[in-house]
Amino acid sequence: MENLISKKDLLEEANISYGQLYRWKRKNLIPENWFIRKSTFTGQETFFPKDDILLRIEKIKTLKDDLSLDELADMFSPSPTLTSLSAEELSKRNIVSQTAIDMFNNFHGRNQSFSFNQLVTLYVLNSLLQTGDVNRAEGLDLLELFHNQAQTVKNAGCELIFIRKMGVSFFILTPEPANLCLEPQAKKIAHYKLSQCMEELKLKLS
Question: Where are the domains of the chain?
Answer without folding.
Answer: 4-76, 85-205
